[in-house]
Amino acid sequence: MSTTTPTATEPVRAATEPPREGRRAGAVLALARFEARELLQQIPVLFFFALYVLLVALRLMSKDGMDDFPVLNTVDRRTQAAPLLFALALFICANAAALRSRKHATVQQLAVLAMEPWRRTLAHVLSVVPYAGLTALVVAAEYTREALKPGAIGQGSAGELAVGPLCVLLAGITGVLLARLLPSSFVPILFVIAVYLLGVLVSGFVDDEQDWVSRLVPVQLFSSSGGDPVPSDLLGRPAGWHALYVVGLCAVLTCVALLVAGGRTRAVKAATALALAATAAGAIGQLPGDTAALDAARRTASESPQRVQSCSTYDGSTYCSFPEWSVVRDDWAEVVDRVRSAAGGAAETDLTIRQRVDTSGGVEADAALEPSATPGEVTVGGRWGGNRVPEFAVGVAAVLVGGSEDVTSEPMCDARAVTVMWLVLGNDPTPSATFRNVRLDDSTSGSGVVLAPTNGLSLTGPQTTVIRELLDRPRAEITARVKAHWAELTSARTTTAQAAKLLGVEVPKEAEQCGE
Amino acid sequence: MTTAPTASTGPTGPATLTATDLALRFGGTRALDGVSLRLTRGVTGLLGPNGAGKTTLLRVLATAVPPDGGEFTALGHDPGTASGRLALRRTLGYLPQTPGFQPEFTAFEFVDYVAILKELTDRGARHREVRRVLEAVDLSQVRGTRIKRLSGGMRQRVALAAALVDDPGFLVLDEPTVGLDPEQRMRFRELIAQAGEGRTVLLSTHQTEDVAMLCHRVVVLAQGRVRFEGTPAELTARAAGRVWSSTERDPNALAGWRTGTGSFRNIGDPPTGAELLEPTLEDGYLLALDGENTEVAA
Fold first, then answer.
1. Candidates A7, A110, A115; nearest CB to B18
2. Listed residue (B279, B58, B248, B23) closest to A109, CA to CA
3. Does B280 have pLDDT greater than 60?
4. Which residues pair with B38 in a beta bridge?
5. What angle do CA B221, B227, B231 make, to 5 degrees?
6. Tens digits of per-residue pLDDT, A338-358?
7. CA of A204: how far to CAs of A199, A207, A208, B79, B253, in Å?
């Protein structure tokens, strides 16, 4: 067959067409939009995104008083775990989308179209970006809502806030990459199981959440997060480096997916090198740096907080806190005023309100603070609002009555416990409810332990009875009696029965058994 | 409703596709064995028995698989180079033998998806183009219906619409009428005839009727080799004087079968004095196979 015959060529296309390279990039973006819309029609994506938004909304609408005083350096970390189920759904659905052609046998007919498989892979990766963006919006809304509260404490870290959306992105990209490496619909399930088992295995020997290995996990799944909030500079979390590490991971997985799909262009190879460098920088940046300095800072904050705290004075009392907590000093002062006023002016001890933390077991450990032996010093913890308010009032009242916090180290089987509780509840707007809430057993009868920032206060059954009786009497009358008999009511030698008589309520019939 | 399209002597003119000595092996099998072709604008039929290499040839010409040997150019593009392959793919429409579908997509979504993969970026223009091709294949009414709810014939038309999107200059259709009922087949022939106007269309088929009605040229392929290339009339003419009627099957005939009248129609070298019959395209096709795969049961 001759090949010298004249050959017709393709007709010239419209001059309005954009340049080819621009058109090619535009086509990738168009496909990404198409795939993003397809993902939106997947029930798991819709369901878990709705669930994620619902959980965040419920958390934001929670009426727990502590939520009025959010500590922003814990709020930022709290945003990381919530979108994980959504990320899992996106992982599964992005994988299924990337496998769609194979599943429905369209590979053959689509293989001869202009857009190469690696560009389609890039479009699949880009299709999950809007979902990371949506997650970022939810995270931003959640954080902004908390940060705008008048009682918001400190500030969060952009690095910590970025982790949740980045993990959503990472999950989607991982789904696409798996589809290119192991094109089977069973692989995602096996992968999830494998990751879970690996997590369990790793958590077996990486139990210190500050361990460098645990930081290579995108989300800090091993964190117990049960501790009291601490100042940001004591956290020792290189959030910026961690975010860079996760960004790098996203980029590396994207590049690997493109290379596997045939995109061995210079640009992809250069991007791969850059991504590897970013990931390595992020990983190395998370290496424990000057641990001695961090340990020293934590030791100082735990043992000599006055060296790093600022103080303000109000009405004779001094309020000392870590700088981030200065916003709640007025709220502390209000409680001190209320407690004092229940004594009708008899409680004249000048107090020092001292914020304390205990980082000896790490910043995530739920350490109990020991009572302060310093006369007139009242401990306050990192959380504020809700039940922490009456607990603090117990601490204030105990120091006003006993002189120092360590008075609660031994059970007060005498009038003082009754006086402390009157000071706490006397001017409380809902004394019965507060009495119930501040007791460990949530009851208003029998013996029990009343919570405080340090040691709890033990109440005997008769003491509880007297306190309940007091709450039924006119406040002004009781306040006057407290003022009149302040010396007796704050003496360890005055029994509970005598206190009842002094306060004008019925003496309990049951026998008092100290330590019951 | 529809008028059966008839084959014309067809457009000729300059070659739009020229293939020289195309070869492809699958293991020890020569799927293509030195295929040379010259296509012009209009519909060219590709006839051949099962296993003749028709689908393989179409896949090679559609750039789905590269040949082991030989070369071809289509619309001035050489698919042997990356840029030539891309340029050809930009002007190619390919309907495979068993097209796949994303069953959850609507007809519109599927064709739109293909249009995006053909790098039509302007959303408005692309959607107009998708609507145009769906209208061309008479699927406008069901464009919002999920493909899994469409009949086999409708799905085949969706696949044709996908092949037609962006007005390709070179259309490769691999047995598009298989599995269609006669009415659907007639409708499809109309569509292919329209598609052949101004385009180069290569149509693989088992149906000589398709070729007779649609194609201005025909290529017969057997065992990976071109057995005939010319017009349908030329193929038919090859059987002139080689088709005869008899009361019994002639044992010397290459093929013979009992017709509706009860007599036998024989093809081959007629005996002296045989009652010769008017040849058809199918007779020419069977003779072009030269005795291979021409066994027809009586």
1. A7
2. B58
3. yes
4. B18
5. 90
6. 999 998 877 888 899 999 998
7. 9, 7, 10, 57, 83
Q: Is any Cβ of chain A less than 8 angstroms from the Cβ of B117?
A: yes
Report pLDDT digits (tens) over A26-49. 999 999 999 999 999 999 999 999
The model's pTM is: 0.86
Answer for the pair B193, B5: CB distance below 8 angstroms, yes or no: yes
Spell out the residues 6+ positions from residue B201 whose beta carbon is closer than 8 angstroms to its own: B42, B43, B44, B170, B171, B172, B173, B192, B195
| Domains defined for chain B, CATH in brackets | 17-230 (3.40.50.300), 241-278 (no CATH)
Q: Which residue of B has its CA nearest to A108?
A: B64
Rounded to the nearest integer, the mean pLDDT of chain B is 89
Q: Please indicate, yes or no, whether residues A261 and A360 belong to a single structural domain of this protein.
A: no
Asked if residue A340 and residue A244 are part of one domain, the reply reads: no
Report the domain count for chain A. Answer: 2
Last residue of some domain: A289, A324, A342?
A: A289
Q: Is B119 on the interface with A (CB under 8 A)?
A: yes
Does residue A165 share a domain with residue A215? yes
Q: How far is CA A282 from the centre of its chain?
A: 23
Contacts of B77 in chain A (CB under 8 A): 10
Measured at the CA of A82, the angle between CA A214 and CA A60, to 5 degrees, comes to 135
Measure CB to CB from residue A7 to each of B16, B36, B102 and give the nearest one. Answer: B16
The answer to whether the Cβ–Cβ distance between B102 and A104 falls below 8 Å is: yes
How would you list the strands of the sheet with B275-276, edge to edge? B255-258, B264-267, B243-246, B275-276
Asked if A376 contacts A403 with a C-beta cutoff of 8 angstroms, the reply is yes
Could you identify the residue written with the tokens 């009392």?
A: A317
Residue A5 lies inside a defined structural domain of this protein: no
The count of other CB atoms within 10 Å of the CB of residue A241 is 19
- CB within 8 Å: A106 and B99: yes
- Which domain, by its residues, includes A355? 312-503
User: Is the domain of A266 the same as that of A336?
Assistant: no
What is the distance in angstroms between the Cα of A1 and the nearest Cα belonging to chain B? 6
pLDDT of residue B11: 52
Which residues of B are less than 8 Å from A9 in CB distance?
75-76
Residues 4 through 33 of chain A touching chain B, CB cutoff 8 Å = 5-11, 18, 23-24, 26-27, 29-31
CB contact under 8 A, B117 and A26: no
Residues A320 and A430 in one domain: yes
Note the ipTM here: 0.85
Task: Report the candidate in B61, B55, B4 with the shortest Cα–Cα distance to residue B37.
Answer: B61
Last residue of a domain, one of A289, A322, A348: A289
Tell me if A230 is assigned to some domain: yes
Residues 5-44 of B with CB under 8 A from A: 13-16, 18-20, 36-38, 40-41
Report whether pLDDT(A204) > 80.
no
Would A416 be classed as within a structural domain?
A: yes
B100/A34 CB distance under 8 A? no
Take residue B191 and report the two structure tokens written for it: 């569509």
Interface of B with A in 97-116 (CB under 8 A): 98-103, 112-114, 116
Best CA proximity match to A177, nearest among A168, A188, A167, A190 = A188
A275 and A361 in a common domain: no
Residues A475 and A335 placed together within one structural domain of the fold: yes
Largest CA distance in chain A: 125
CA distance B89 to chain A (A): 5
The nearest alpha carbon in chain B to A99 belongs to B102
- What length is written for chain A? 516
Contacts of A182 (CB under 8 A, 6+ apart): none
Question: How many residues would you count in chain B?
Answer: 298
Query: Which DSSP string corresponds to A458-490?
Result: EE-HHHHHHHHHHHTS-HHHHHHHHHHTHHHHT
Same domain? A249 vs A356 = no
